[in-house]
Amino acid sequence: MNQVKEIKLLNPRYLIFIALSILLVSYAMYQARFIIQGPQIRITSHTNGLTVGGHLITLEGLARNVAWLSLNDRQIFTNDKGAWSEKLLVSEGVSVVTLKATDRFGRKTEEEIELVLPTERSQLN
User: Fold this and answer.
1) Distance of CA 125 to the CA centre of its chain
2) Cα–Cα distance between 103 and 55 in angstroms, integer?
3) CA 22 – CA 91 distance, rounded (Å)
């Protein structure tokens, strides 16, 4: 009787069904990795503490899995590949730039950098 059950479990149809089920679950987990990770943002054009040469700069970066993206609490938009680019006026001294993102599930992330624009007095000395 045990031999009959073993033969039924090793039936090629069952093995194919099990293999396809494992593949389907693996593929679903692979595709869900970005949802599991949450929003991801990065400023690519400037680094923290960078000294800039003028008042007008262009900040650029990448965003993935975001439903809402803001730069200094002003909404910005990405292209279809997740890249964004915004012009920003920097005041003399230290300017703090804050990039915030929220995904469709309400999870939030934030990246903050400081940019330095030397004052005219410090340029004369």
Assistant:
1) 42
2) 32
3) 57
Residue type, 61: G
The most distant pair of C-alpha atoms in the chain lies apart, rounded to whole Å, by 97
Q: Which CATH class is domain 39-119?
A: mainly beta
Give the amino acid at 69.
L
* pLDDT tens string 48-72: 999 998 999 999 999 999 999 999 9
Name the one residue in this structure whose structure tokens are 């949450």: 38
- Is the pLDDT confidence value at 102 over 90? yes
Q: Write the DSSP symbol of residue 125.
A: -
The pTM of the full predicted model, rounded to 2 decimals, is: 0.71
3-state SS of 8-71? HHCCHHHHHHHHHHHHHHHHHHHHCHHHHHCCEEEECCCCCCEECCCCEEEEEEEEECCCEEEE
Residue 103, SS3 per DSSP: coil
Residue 119: φ, ψ to 5° = -75, 165
